[in-house]
Design brief:
Order of helices and strands: HHEHEHEHEHHEEHEHEHEHEH
CATH architecture: Alpha-Beta Barrel
Mean pLDDT: 96
Bound molecules: S-adenosylmethionine, 6-(5-methyl-2-OXO-imidazolidin-4-yl)-hexanoic acid, iron/sulfur cluster
Shape: globular
Helix content: 25-40%
Low-confidence stretches: none
Number of strands: 10
CATH topology: TIM Barrel
Length: about 375
């Protein structure tokens, strides 16, 4: 196997992205075969355990309270509800459950304790457990690890440059620090981003440089196509073409050969042929279930039909890394520190975010 390269430059990545399509596909598919079985695709089910009402201003996100989109917010789910949903996901072929919360960061206290119990419960069902809860401290990462968390998702979303045009309430460095905190445990890192937010090719390449230079590189990299939701600052952005998704997946595969590249949000807009090209180009994971966090996703039966058609096999849990041990709450080595970390609030003004915010207060 060729060696992993951590010092990719933006120019090198742009040159790969721009290769003639047939060469790009051939190269990506060759790298893919070196490191992975091309017929195996991981199936992960998303579960929004706390929806809406988020204080952040992420320009793409329907869950930001300030934009008043049509989504129905709710309180933190019960452990029993989560268990029932995880069992359903397992029965339909998923090996991983990813629990998402519309939080800026994790706060120590009852709600976090409840999330830890969810992690223990799902790990005991012999499924990989992933959480995406916003920024976390080292102590919080260690407590999640001890409960049996397999992966933590925290996206860089785009390049550091373009990030400033998307979000004003948090800083890129805080995202990197959270990933660093996860790396202090044996929890695997899932970090990727979104394309089609009006960014340049340089920004896509910049994001890949940031991800590929992490050592070790993230074990999983979700590539989302923007789902433009009414009421958000990005509501009017036109969807990207499938060719951009294929190029992005192929480039990600080449620069991060070991990672699981996840074909994430935006699959409802993609044909089966388009998705097949993404799998050929190195995508080896999808989110299944008719809902992502708040927006639609293809029906799981249709996905399984697509798998049959393409001869794809769902990946078994813990194929890449052993199942973590769950330590019960009463045996925990770590205390809740009641920390109040000062994550950064840059607070600069982003015109389209401000416009969307003022529009929503007029409309509602
Ligand atoms: N609140 C936590 C955070 O932001 O880290 C976790 C949940 S957040 C919804 C997880 C990820 O979903 C974001 O980082 C972003 O990449 C993705 N996402 C959110 N809205 C999206 C949209 N409209 N289209 C595509 N991806 C989206
Ligand atoms: C990721 O990169 N994509 C998922 C997951 N990680 C948490 C979320 C996609 C959300 C799409 C918009 C929504 O459904 O609210
Ligand atoms: Fe909140 Fe996460 Fe949405 Fe940003 S992406 S508004 S932090 S839920």
């Amino acid at each position: 196997m060729s060696e992993i390269k951590y010092d990719w430059t933006k120019d090198e990545i742009i040159a790969i992205y721009r290769k003639p399509m047939m060469e790009l596909l051939y190269e990506a598919a060759s790298v893919h075969r070196e490191y992975h079985n091309p017929n195996v695709v991981q199936v992960s089910t998303l579960l929004s355990i706390k929806t809406g009402g988020c204080p952040e201003d992420c320009g793409y996100c329907p869950q930001a309270a300030r934009y008043h989109t049509d989504i129905e917010g709710n309180d933190l789910m019960t452990v029993q509800h989560v268990k029932a949903q995880a069992l359903r996901a397992k029965a339909s072929g998923s090996s991983r459950v990813c629990m998402g919360a519309a939080w800026r960061n994790v706060k120590d206290g009852e709600e976090f304790d409840q999330v830890l119990e969810m992690v223990r419960t799902i790990n005991k069902l012999d499924m990989e457990v992933c959480c995406t809860l916003g920024m976390i401290t080292e102590n919080q990462a260690k407590r999640l690890a001890e409960a049996g968390l397999y992966a933590y998702n925290h996206n860089l979303d785009t390049s550091e440059d373009y990030y400033k045009d998307v979000i004003s309430t948090r800083a890129y460095q805080d995202r990197l620090d959270t990933i660093g905190n996860v790396r202090k445990t044996n929890v695997t890192v899932c970090s990727g981003g979104i394309i089609g937010m009006g960014e340049k090719l340089e920004d896509r390449a910049g994001m890949l440089v940031a991800l590929a230079s992490l050592n070790p590189q993230p074990e999983s990299v979700p590539i989302n196509a923007l789902v433009a939701v009414e009421g958000t600052p990005m509501e009017d952005i036109e969807p990207i073409s499938i060719w951009e998704m294929i190029r992005m997946v192929a480039t990600t595969r080449i620069v991060m050969p070991m990672t699981q590249v996840r074909l994430s949000a935006g699959r409802t807009q993609m044909s089966r042929e388009g998705q097949a090209m993404c799998f050929f180009a190195g995508a080896n994971s999808i989110f299944a279930g008719d809902k992502l966090l708040t927006t639609p996703n293809p029906d799981v039966n249709e996905d399984m039909e697509m798998f049959d058609l393409l001869g794809l096999i769902p990946q078994k849990p813990f194929l890449k890394k052993d199942q973590p041990q769950t330590v019960e709450a009463e045996d925990s080595q770590f205390e809740s520190l009641g920390e109040k970390p000062k994550w950064t609030r840059p607070g600069h003004s982003i015109e389209r975010n401000e416009t969307a915010k003022s529009k929503s207060s007029v409309d509602h």
